[in-house]
Design a protein that fits this description.
single chain, 245 residues, mainly alpha, Arc Repressor Mutant, subunit A, two-stranded antiparallel ribbon, 13 helices, 60% helix, elongated
């Protein structure tokens, strides 16, 4: 995290020195996502319990149900967080995602820690400790997130692409050269804001910022390879053949 962030957002500096803003999820949306996931787990566990009791004796069935309860309540979030980019069905329904503290995909050990510590967050009654801790944490993290260095964030959903880009079914904003040229032209030449242009082409402001930075670096490298030393000085005193033609 870098200076300049405030409560309600976390500012991350990428290896390309581009700031990325993460918006920590509030208690309300996290609670609704949790309720959704709990209902899914309880529904699945009910079906498993009925099947086990129909197949095994009462004592054996109870042992299997206890084991299944632990596996579901612990394994369910871990599996979805690792296999579905930090999103359980509940988080997906409310536009949330759990990420690494640096905004990277969550790792196995992080998911394991945050979900094991969930039992402590749950104490003494339905996330009493977790809710209390999140009230005092600037990023609204529960104890499990603090220990695992993870963060639940709101996903930023871009507007639908406009104009001809929207009509192109194969449009991929991160790889289409025409989209990159449009972003670079409107930001660098027309001096419009990155967020405004990002909404027009249908990407998030963070993605547009990263791609714009890389496009500028690629252009600079190409100019230096073509023009030599004058390109490194911004072509202000260009003396190469291309600059005098």
């Amino acid at each position: 995290m870098i200076p300049g962030s405030r409560r309600g957002e976390r500012l991350i500096l990428t290896p390309e020195h581009v700031p990325i803003r993460l918006s920590p999820a509030g208690l309300g949306s996290r609670f609704l996502a949790l309720i959704t996931d709990v209902l899914i787990v309880l529904g699945t566990l009910s079906i498993v319990s009925v099947v086990l009791r129909a197949v095994f004796s009462q004592g054996v069935a109870e042992a299997f149900v206890t084991t299944a309860s632990f596996v579901l309540f612990v394994g369910y979030p871990i599996w979805f967080e690792l296999r579905h980019q930090g999103r359980t069905p509940g988080k997906r329904a409310f536009g949330l995602r759990v990420v690494d503290g640096r905004g990277l995909p969550i790792r196995l050990e992080q998911s394991f820690v945050r979900n094991i510590v969930r039992a402590l967050d749950f104490a003494p009654l339905f996330y009493g400790v977790g809710g209390l801790v999140s009230l005092f944490d600037r990023d609204r993290r529960r104890l499990g997130d603090i220990l695992a260095d993870t963060l639940v964030v709101h996903e930023r959903i871009p507007l639908r692409p406009q104009g001809q880009i929207r009509l192109e079914r194969r449009f991929n904003a991160l790889r289409t050269p025409s989209a990159l040229r449009r972003i670079r032209q409107r930001v660098d030449l027309e001096e419009r804001s990155v967020s405004e242009v990002a909404h027009e082409v249908g990407v998030t402001p963070n993605n547009a910022t990263v791609r714009l930075h890389r496009a500028r670096q690629a252009l600079k490298t190409r100019l230096e390879g073509t023009c030599g030393a004058c390109a490194a000085r911004g072509c202000l005193d260009c003396s190469c053949r291309s600059g005098t033609s």
